Amino acid sequence: MRFYCALIPGSSLDWLSTVQGDTPSGPEGSVGLAGFTLGDQRSMAIEAGPLDPFNHSFSIMVECDDQAGIDRLWDALPEGGTAEQCGWLRDRWGLCWQVVPKRLGELMADPDPQGRSPRHRGHADDGQARHRRAGGDGTGLSPCQDRPAGR
After folding, report:
1. pTM for the whole thing?
2. Exposure b/e, 30-50, CB count within 10 A at least 16 = b
3. Is the distance from CB of 109 to CB of 115 less than 8 angstroms?
4. Around Cβ 56, how many Cβ atoms within 10 Å?
5. CB atoms within 10 A of CB 138
6. Per-residue pLDDT of the chain (151 residues; tens, 9 = 90+)
């Protein structure tokens, strides 16, 4: 959690509770519960150990103001994990993330075909990963970067 808090602006590790004895969730002294804030959103986490591994039914979405913010998170989060398609990635601990432009909803709803990439009108099934802005003016959006998923 310290890694996430250091990476995302507006974040803090608010409190930790350690395991008092060895359990299936972890050894004595390991983190059992934690309260934290990611990007001004308060959350709590519980260590369930191997009983409940992460999957796509839960992910954290981070909205970025600009391409530099997207790139910064994409350079750090998948290290030791895997990049997935169209803004999704899985970090080294198996947690799924969606790193997207803050304007994603606006761009997706734009009826002007010049306002977004043609690939956003259909399913992007080209093995690409990171969201990229289309064109030099940054007004459009290409859903995926020119680098293969998993790289």
Report:
1. 0.70
2. eebebebebeeeeeeeebeee
3. no
4. 9
5. 13
6. 889 999 999 999 999 999 888 887 788 888 889 999 999 899 998 887 777 788 888 999 999 998 899 999 999 998 999 988 877 899 998 999 999 888 888 888 877 756 555 444 443 333 446 666 544 334 445 544 433 344 3
* Cα 33 from Cα 124, distance rounded (Å): 38
Q: How far is CA 22 from CA 25, 32, 45, 55, 77, in A?
A: 8, 11, 19, 25, 30
For residues 54 and 62, give the distance between their C-alpha atoms in angstroms, rounded to a whole number.
17
- The residues facing 31 across adjacent strands are 18
CB 44 within 8 Å of CB 32? no
Q: What are phi and psi of 75, to 5 degrees?
A: -80, -25
- Return left, alpha or beta for 4; rule: phi > 0 is left, psi -120 to 50 is alpha, else beta: alpha
